Protein: RING-type domain-containing protein
Amino acid sequence: MSQSTVYLQPSHQNAPPAESSQDPRQSTIWLQTQRKRSASPSFEGMQPDGSRKRHREDTEANTDHESALPPLASTSASVVPIDLESELAQELECPCCSALVYRPVVVSPCQHFFCGSCCSLWIQNGGTNCPACRGASTVVAPSRPLQIIIDTLLRVNPSRGRTERERQQADLIYSGTIMRFPSPREASPPLDIDISHEYIRPCSHCAPGNVYGWNCPQPVPDPSLDLANAWRVESGLPPGHLRCGHCENLLAVRAPVTSRCDFCQVSFCGLTAQARCCALPIERQEPHSLTDLTDLVQSTEIYDCFEGNSYEVDILLEYLSSRDIKPRRILADIVEVYRSTPEGFRPLINNGVFTDIWSVEPTPDPNPNAPRRLCCRMCAAEILLSGLRGWWTTERTRGSVRPEVLARKDCPSGASCHEQTNLAHAKDFNHILAALAAPLTSPEPQPGSQVQPPLNAERKHDEERTAAPDGGPRDHHGANGAPQHDLALPFAQLSTTGATQPRFHPALGERKEEH
Structure:
């Protein structure tokens, strides 16, 4: 028995439009769509006799089935609203800084994107692969399509953009060029746990034909290759070798990259961390943890230099920030003043300022009277802190400090005042007093060492200032606006804090004023 096929339509499509709210023309169009076209004359007589009856029965059955079906939901009710702006901003976050990507770059071949500055810092810090998937990567290139999308998003909501300060810092790090990942470093050889604590491993120059181009004249046998001739830890250091002060690896004393600090007498390998495992000329050395002004702000030792006077430290930091004076420049001024004195750095050495800085054992000083030229980072920081107060005492006399700071009365107790930690007292009284140098007895010299006599306490302080041609004070700024330090006023002519302050040079502090 043949069955006819009937196609159902939703009930709302067959319903006529409401007459109260619809245009009459829409009702006419609806009636025209519901009118069926008659069959072609060529099909007349081809239908069986019962076809009309069967068609009527099928139509009634379909009508009953449609009435039993649940009503269809409205199309507009099934649409879920989407906050396109928030979704897009979330998708465009940098995986490194978790903020809207700025100057986007794409890593090849994985196609992960980051801020240009974030990816640049990743590469500078030794990254050799993608920061997101850690997959092998080769090139990092700017992404113009992503930048167009970000610009469009920021036009819709500018508040999602970075601040002006953040953009300036990012532009200093990344300039918009194509970057390449460095080649991955070779994996370190597996460490033999059984012999690592019993035998000394050779230095980087002991292996014949090493990549550094210099062979150790007294090579140390590798315990993993020649255990019978390996050097035991209990036997001390092998001949011609020492421990690096920073990384504590074995080093060859006579290697071209090996250097020794003239202050603490500790040697450095110059290989593991080239910026730290080295002793440089003191004018070029970076003081440890005192590289920029931010380090000075976070340093607690700077407050010790001023006896806990936080108000005076704030004035100093404000002065350094307004003139963009780096700690390295202060160190150069202090070193020049030390070298201008007859004793030089000898009082600091005699007071033990440079002892026990590193965990490795220093070597004996071959010539105590030799000039001090090379310096490590730790000793550079000690020299900076030892002369910072004296440097600031001299710098204040140039007239560049705020007038209300210099207008304060001098405290009768001077630097030894116990009330200078009180903020109100520090604001009312000045505790940075320039006076004549007072004699200070250095510790007893070691046998065989020659110590210069102490500085003359009666040396007068030259108060004369260089005058301009018009008779007024000369501006202490160069052509580019940078302050020019007048080192004719040496720190050695300032007063001393006393023998109880071994950190400071005997000629760099200040003594009590007699009132």
